[in-house]
Amino acid sequence: MTTTLQQPVRPAAAGRATPHKVLAKAGLYVFLLANAAFVTYLFNAAGVGSNKLVNFGRLTGLYGALAMAFQLLLVARLPWLDRRLGMDKLTSWHRWVGFTIFWMLVGHLTFIAFGNAGADGPVAEIVRQATELEGILRALVAWAIIMVVGVVSARFARRKLAYETWHFIHLYTYIAIFLAFTHQIAVGSTFRKSALATGYWWGLWAFAIGAVVIGRLVLPFWRNWRHQFRVAAVVPEAHNVVSVYIEGRDLDRLGAKAGQFFLWRFLTKDRWWQANPFSLSAAPNGKYLRLTAKALGEGSADIRNIAVGTRVFAEGPYGAFTTMHQIKPNALLVAGGVGITPIRALLEEIKGHVVVLYRVTDPREAVLLHEIEGLARAKGAVLRLVTGSSKTITANGPLLGPDNIVALVPDVEERDVFICGPNGMTNAVVQSLSELGVPSNQVHAERFALAN
């Protein structure tokens, strides 16, 4: 039996990020600002002409190129960054840096064209440079590719494009980066004036490209060679839910944590090219990894037919949705739908007193409920099944409104809160916690987005 909230709702308390996130963010900011300052110094040291438009064009081009290198660092999936910030935060940064590149390069072309334009106008000047100067045509092709990628990445376009189509177009960015870099080497006077400038620019790009090669190629292939993942068992959990157990060598040295996810490729002739992101549904124990999938699409529906012994190529572990960021001794875990899988894994690993709110429309849809009940009993945790439609109003207001949350968990302000579920549910819970004054650094709600 629950009680109604008797105290007024307070605004969200200020909360700094957890120490791990502060360190990662500070590292990225220092990297970006220090390089921007050094690029500005090299630009001035190389000599500034009297044509202000051309100077602005050169400088925006340099900043755009620096943003490209930073963009590569964000998509490299480096474990140190990923475990501290999470894929959703890195993807958000990736998006905004992408639009920064878009506008920097628009400014670069516009200022250069108008600054050098003669009587025939800026378009004629662009055509002249493209036909007469080395590297300009490559730059125009790179510019056109980035313009297309920028347009299709805008929200109005993304809503009309299939993910696969958008992703395919997005991959052309790598071609644009290569063309833009060769353009800088051919005509970039800033980095040809001194050995220091040349060495710096080559070193910066070697670092950025090396990060991508290591994070996206070397680490995944090395981990899979080392651990030799295979399907050990496929266990139905419900009529449309299945758990897959993955075995391998030296899994205790993989470094996976409860709450993280992998990109799984099952190496059969029909599925090897499909990478499905699934969270671990049990805490890693050194013996096996487990994922639990609901038949939401064709890819996840076919997983129940995977044969035991099938080789698996796994990329990961990814994500910052772990106890690494817990700052309070006790926790509240909130799950909705298939978001129960990382929550179930966290319940197994997390320390302190735990309350679990499991949000489902119908109790019969509560996947892994028996396991969670058993874990709750063993750990002395409190499990509350919150059922009803999104329009259900309880005696304390909406199911996941602030009044009902505090009625279910009176000491919610003294707990870390881990939330996983559909975006609508996640947003509702985050908003309720904000109204209750729960500090933002105690709220963990990773949405498992991937930077491409």
TrEMBL record:
Signal peptide: none annotated. SUPFAM superfamilies: Ferredoxin reductase-like, C-terminal NADP-linked domain, Riboflavin synthase domain-like. The keyword Iron applies. The keyword Electron transport does not apply. It comes from the Bacteria. Keywords: 2Fe-2S, FAD, Flavoprotein, Iron, Iron-sulfur, Membrane, Metal-binding, Oxidoreductase, Transmembrane, Transmembrane helix. Its cofactor is FAD. Gene3D superfamilies: Nucleotide-binding domain of ferredoxin-NADP reductase (FNR) module, Translation factors. PROSITE patterns: FAD_FR. Coiled coil: none annotated. It is a multi-pass membrane protein. InterPro entries: FAD-bd_8, FAD-bd_FR_type, Fe3_Rdtase_TM_dom, FNR_nucleotide-bd, MRET, OxRdtase_FAD/NAD-bd, Riboflavin_synthase-like_b-brl. It is found in: Membrane. The chain crosses the membrane at residues 26-44, 56-75, 96-115, 135-157, 169-187, 199-219. Residues 224-324 form the FAD-binding FR-type domain. This is Ferredoxin reductase family protein. It comes from Lentzea roselyniae. The lineage of its organism: Bacteria, Bacillati, Actinomycetota, Actinomycetes, Pseudonocardiales.
